Amino acid sequence: MYAFLNIGFFIFHSALILFIIFGWIWKKARRIHRIVLVLTASSWFILGIWNGFGYCPFTDWHYQVRMKLGHYDMPESYIKFLIQSITGLDIPQKLVDIVAVSVLFFILGLSVLLYMKDRRESRSR
Questions:
Q1: Cβ distance 74 to 63 under 8 Å?
Q2: Which residues, at least 6 apart from 63, have a Cβ–Cβ distance to it below 8 Å?
Q3: pLDDT higher than threshold 90 for residue 125
Q4: pLDDT by residue (tens digit) across 48-87?
Q5: How many domains does the structure of the chain reveal?
Q6: Is the distance from CB of 59 to CB of 53 less than 8 angstroms?
Q7: Residue 68: CB atoms within 10 Å
Q8: Contact yes or no for 19/33 (Cβ under 8 A)
Q9: Three-class SS of residue 43?
Q10: What are the C-alpha distances in Å from 38 to residues 25, 41, 104, 107?
Q11: 36: domain range?
C-alpha cells in the first residue's frame, strides 16, 4: 500500500507543480490556476509560520509515506527531492528555495496580469 501511495504522491505532486508553472497558459484553466496559486502561497507563507517556510501538506504526507518505506534521508523541500530523484544532482537547498520562490512570485504576477487582461477583454465584449 505504501509503495502505491509513494508513486501516487510522486505523480500527483509533480503534476501539481507543473500545473502551477504552466497552468496559466490555458485560458479555461486560469481560474483554477489562480486558486491553486493562492492555496500554494498560503501554505508556504501562512502555514509556514508554524510548520517552516515553504510548508506543503502534500510533501509532509508523502515524506511520512516514504518514512514508512524506510527512506529517512529526505531533503527539506520537495523541489530538491524531485531534482535529486530525476537528475541525481545535489543542488544547495538555499538555491532551490530562491528559485522556487522566484518562480512562484513570477507566476503570481503573471496570473494577476492575465486576470486583468481577461477582465478587460470580457468587459469590452
A1: yes
A2: 74
A3: no
A4: 999 998 999 999 999 999 999 999 989 999 999 999 999 9
A5: 1
A6: no
A7: 13
A8: yes
A9: helix
A10: 17, 5, 10, 11
A11: 2-124
